[in-house]
């Protein structure tokens, strides 16, 4: 049930095949996230849940170009990044349901997904805390002489934290192969960006530092793909870090259950215009690479895969509570 | 073969030997590798010995990420208080990953920092703040009191797959002692009985171990036999050695340079009160710093901290007590 998200790419403009792959991934994320929301309301998914509905394009376009050996770090809104990086839907869903079969045996949950085999080094729950971790993975890759990179996803809210600037400084100082991907959805938790800072564009925050910085429309998947492709090639070639700012939209509140009173509701019409999936489908129809009946088939396939994932997760037991303190420390040493 | 070297030299020797043994070991910090002649730069090169900006959060977080990726960084954080700047990365990231991933990843990271420098360094650079880290799941904490233990605990810390906070006492920096030359490992979670005795158990850490030994010597002249125990690591904490000692002596005195309510002594007192109550023939006595910052003024600094006289007085309080149930036993 893993989608083809790990093929190497060598051209800067996405081909129709690539775009179809991206669309497939975006539908998988959308179907997964909508189901997680429903399971949360039904209390089958436990805990604090942040959905990435509306931001699927960034996750898909970035992760599609990475390899298993590249490290990806995400934050509290991590499901889409994990799925795009190749984590299996069944074990990802099982983790959100706190089951033994989950990616982390049910011990991490939504904000702490880890899947080493797919290079998803992990999600961390404290805003910005993942940024220096990605620098460390990049340092290790550089010291090993490989062309692997580290990618960290964070929101515009993390940029006002001191560790963002500390990390940009260190990444540029050491020319680390780390790609900083900011999903600027205009809200830091519950607060519009304008109430937190006078700098509108995240890419302007890093202006004094010697790193390429690009702002793209994060809902325009092809644009994200091309911009990231260029920055990725530089990083693989040893030319150091880069920042990609993707202007996105968060269709849901900050967390599931968020009363969402701090912003105006998005009109259906407005959303039809912004939705990265609908936009890509319109573009595909216009360009002729997407047949009229394909979107419905992709959506149906994604929902069927999610159904299977949920059934699998439900069949997985909860972890034995007696092990609650067994994994606090590793017993290992070198 | 052992030879006498300083505590700080022993720590650096431990790091140097581990860097020779394992090329994944890195040394990172705000004042490391200052010149090409630096013994670490000369031996291991600037790629493995890296100076960082004064960016504790990024520095420690980056090292944690490198650890998750298979490196074994030693971060010289300089002073323990500087860890507070980066608290999320110290107590909430690397140390959680093994657990949160269901045991799938490890973060072999060593954070080295000095503490307890009571030489007029006043309110923000003198703290004995190890207590706030000992209850953090997934984080190990070593507090060496001798040059030999400093080397051996550092080597063990670097080889351990978990994040370790290695806190060395500033007042011991230039103290000397016999240290084995080659590979020397001191296991975690094994307290050392540094002076055997029969009348009272005296537990101390770091610099206070030496004050406890001085107090024990003074008390021996009065016929009081004091057993001095140094836990050496406070996470894991070797409660068993303390309990076994208290079973023999029936009395427990705890010395701690920390503020009383954030001390190791409070934790050990609670453990012994729960598991060793039947052995106790006197109330447990804690000789700690006051719940106050360290003042600049020398007499006030002395007043706040434990010293030999306070330890001696604490032991006498424990020894002079006869509990009602002891008296009852004596009558029968």
TrEMBL record, chain A:
Keywords: Oxidoreductase, Pyruvate, Thiamine pyrophosphate. Its cofactor is thiamine diphosphate. Its EC number is 1.2.4.1. It holds the Pfam family E1_dh. Residues 26-320 form the Dehydrogenase E1 component domain. One of its GO terms (biological process) is pyruvate decarboxylation to acetyl-CoA. CDD domains: TPP_E1_PDC_ADC_BCADC. One of its GO terms (molecular function) is magnesium ion binding. It is an enzyme of class 1 (oxidoreductase). This is Pyruvate dehydrogenase (Acetyl-transferring). It comes from Pseudonocardia dioxanivorans (strain ATCC 55486 / DSM 44775 / JCM 13855 / CB1190).
TrEMBL record, chain B:
Residues 5-174 form the Transketolase-like pyrimidine-binding domain. Keywords: Oxidoreductase, Pyruvate, Thiamine pyrophosphate. Its EC number is 1.2.4.1. Coiled coil: none annotated. GO terms for molecular function: magnesium ion binding; pyruvate dehydrogenase (acetyl-transferring) activity. The keyword Membrane does not apply. Pfam families: Transket_pyr, Transketolase_C. Its cofactor is thiamine diphosphate. It comes from the Bacteria. This is Pyruvate dehydrogenase (Acetyl-transferring). It comes from Pseudonocardia dioxanivorans (strain ATCC 55486 / DSM 44775 / JCM 13855 / CB1190).
């Amino acid at each position: 049930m893993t989608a083809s998200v790990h093929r190497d790419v060598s051209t800067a403009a996405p081909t129709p095949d690539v775009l179809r792959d991206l669309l497939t991934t975006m539908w998988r994320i959308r179907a997964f996230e909508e189901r997680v929301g429903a399971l949360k309301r039904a209390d089958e998914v436990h805990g604090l849940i942040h959905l990435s509905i509306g931001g699927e394009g960034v996750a898909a376009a970035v992760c599609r170009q990475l390899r298993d050996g590249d490290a990806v770090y995400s934050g509290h809104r991590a499901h889409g990044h994990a799925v795009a990086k190749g984590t299996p839907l069944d074990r990802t869903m099982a983790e959100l349901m706190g089951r033994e079969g989950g990616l982390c045996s049910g011990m991490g949950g939504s904000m702490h997904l880890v899947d080493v085999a797919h290079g998803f080094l992990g999600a961390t729950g404290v805003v910005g805390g993942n940024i220096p971790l990605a620098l460390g993975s990049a340092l290790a890759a550089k010291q090993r002489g490989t062309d692997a990179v580290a990618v960290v996803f964070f929101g515009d809210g993390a940029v006002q934290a001191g560790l963002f600037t500390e990390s940009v400084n260190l990444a540029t100082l050491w020319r680390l192969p780390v790609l900083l991907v900011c999903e600027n959805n205009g809200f830091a938790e519950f607060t519009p960006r304008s109430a937190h800072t006078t700098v509108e564009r995240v890419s302007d925050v890093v202006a004094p530092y010697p790193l390429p910085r690009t702002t793209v429309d994060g809902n325009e998947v092809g644009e994200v793909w091309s911009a990231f492709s260029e920055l990725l090639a530089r990083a693989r070639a040893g030319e150091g870090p880069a920042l990609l700012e993707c202007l996105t939209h968060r269709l849901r509140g900050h967390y599931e259950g968020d009363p969402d009173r701090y912003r105006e509701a998005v009109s259906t019409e407005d959303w039809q215009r912004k939705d990265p999936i609908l936009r890509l489908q319109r573009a595909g129809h216009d360009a002729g690479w997407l047949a009229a009946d394909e979107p419905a088939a992709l959506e149906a396939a994604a929902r069927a895969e999610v159904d299977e994932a949920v059934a699998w997760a439900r069949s997985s037991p909860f972890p034995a509570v007696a092990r609650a303190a067994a994994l606090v420390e590793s017993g290992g040493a070198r | 073969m052992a030879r006498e070297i300083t505590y700080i030299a022993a720590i650096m020797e431990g790091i140097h030997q581990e860097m020779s043994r394992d090329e994944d070991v890195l040394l990172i910090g705000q004042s490391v590798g200052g010149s090409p002649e630096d013994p670490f730069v000369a031996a291991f090169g600037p790629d493995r010995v890296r100076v960082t900006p004064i960016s504790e959060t990024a520095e420690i977080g980056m090292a944690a990420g490198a650890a998750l990726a298979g490196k074994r960084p030693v971060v010289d954080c300089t002073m323990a208080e500087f860890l507070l700047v980066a608290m999320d990365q110290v107590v909430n990231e690397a140390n959680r990953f093994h657990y949160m991933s269901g045991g799938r990843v490890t973060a072999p990271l060593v954070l080295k920092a000095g503490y307890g420098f009571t030489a007029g360094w006043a309110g923000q650079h003198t703290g004995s703040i190890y207590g706030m880290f000992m209850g953090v799941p997934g984080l190990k904490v070593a507090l060496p009191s001798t040059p030999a233990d400093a080397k051996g605990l550092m080597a063990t810390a670097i080889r351990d797959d978990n994040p370790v906070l290695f806190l060395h006492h500033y007042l011991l920096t230039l103290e000397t002692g016999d240290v084995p030359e080659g590979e020397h490992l001191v296991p975690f979670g094994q307290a050392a009985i540094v002076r055997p005795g029969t009348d009272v158990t005296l537990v101390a850490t770091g610099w206070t171990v030496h004050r406890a030994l001085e107090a024990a010597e003074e008390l021996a002249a009065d016929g009081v036999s004091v057993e001095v125990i140094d836990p050496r690591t406070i996470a894991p904490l070797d409660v068993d050695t303390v309990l076994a000692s208290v079973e023999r002596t029936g009395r427990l005195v705890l010395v701690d340079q920390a503020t009383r309510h954030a001390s190791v002594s409070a934790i050990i007192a609670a453990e012994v009160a729960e598991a060793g109550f039947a052995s106790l023939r006197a109330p447990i006595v804690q000789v700690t710093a006051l719940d106050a910052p360290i003042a600049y003024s020398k007499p006030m600094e002395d007043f706040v901290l434990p010293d030999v006289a306070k330890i001696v007085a604490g032991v006498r309080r424990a020894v002079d007590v006869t509990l009602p149930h002891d008296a009852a036993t004596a009558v029968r």
